């Protein structure tokens, strides 16, 4: 693994940071989250159109930039610094990869260019708040997490003559579910005897029977919605007959590994910004006639946070690099990180991404809590915006965590506490994340 960034990757960071420093301050974030969409549509158009953020990890054959999860993680580290409200994670890290992995050529050509340009936004809808399990981050995704034919899930039934599919059920905590135009919906098919989980495409515009309600959330910069589907017309994702359930599970696991790495990088960016703001504040704030930061106890607390942040940063980029091995190349074919065709990755080491996300979430939570404490009463005001980072930490744990379950799942997959073939991988897995 070469830990040095390329000049192109440095350029992505510089350009994005310069733009967000001007357009994503606390006042702008507050105004954006109060809009019906929950984000600044003008800024999103600029990020998608000029900088191609939603298409960074998509092949050029479908209108993307031909990069991979590493570049998307670098971009999200910058958006995390400003706690940017945007549909980037939902579109680029959840919906688009699944369409690319499982969609038919017609579906890819019809949707991916529009998602890459920001013309459309997308998201993944999983019933019962089971998104971490669906992505194989906190448990195996080979069970009945999509409902199992029971109440509380989403069921799909095929229309007579094979004319299409209809979905019935509901899903909560759907990231940007109230505005996304393309919904990738996980639904249960086949009843009890021949049950299975499949992914379906729903075009939200004009979809009869679809009701979307924005929910109250801890982190307002990540709006979520409850979707109610009452015989909503849907299209099976993939060629005629769809994909086998094992292929669906594998695609979700690979998407989960990349999404966890991207979310970890974003959390690291947020923690870095929170620590930077806190350092600046303790230098200027005086207590007993001297700067607050001159006290030894404060310096030690900040030093501990810095060490924790650097460890989380290394883990996040290691996970992004691992997920990028085998990502689709510029023409859509599978290409390894080093350019070798036919070598797959990403889902090969899902424990790396889960561990990295757990470490990043814990670092963000610790840094944000100290930031609020050291700011004192103004730490929960929009003037200093320290509270935004604390809310982001809590919101991310609810979205794809919590951290202890991420660690438990990684340990389970590595065979850390059980004898068998996986046990030999445990030491290498932990070494890779800690490096």
From TrEMBL:
Keywords for this protein: FAD, Flavoprotein, Oxidoreductase
Cofactor: FAD
Enzyme class: oxidoreductase
Domain Acyl-CoA dehydrogenase/oxidase C-terminal span(s) in chain numbering: 261-412
Gene Ontology terms, MF aspect: oxidoreductase activity
InterPro entries on file: Acyl-CoA_Oxase/DH_mid-dom_sf, AcylCo_DH-like_C, AcylCo_DH/oxidase_C, AcylCoA_DH/ox_N, AcylCoA_DH/ox_N_sf, AcylCoA_DH/oxidase_NM_dom_sf
Keyword Endoplasmic reticulum among record annotations: no
TM spans (from-to): none
Superkingdom per UniProt: Bacteria
Gene3D superfamilies xrefs: Acyl-CoA dehydrogenase/oxidase, N-terminal domain, Butyryl-CoA Dehydrogenase, subunit A, domain 2, Butyryl-CoA Dehydrogenase, subunit A, domain 3
Residue ranges constituting the Acyl-CoA dehydrogenase/oxidase N-terminal domain according to the UniProt record: 6-119
EC number: 1.-.-.-
Family membership noted in the UniProt record: Belongs to the acyl-CoA dehydrogenase family.
UniProt name for this protein: Acyl-CoA dehydrogenase family protein
Protein species of origin: Streptomyces bugieae
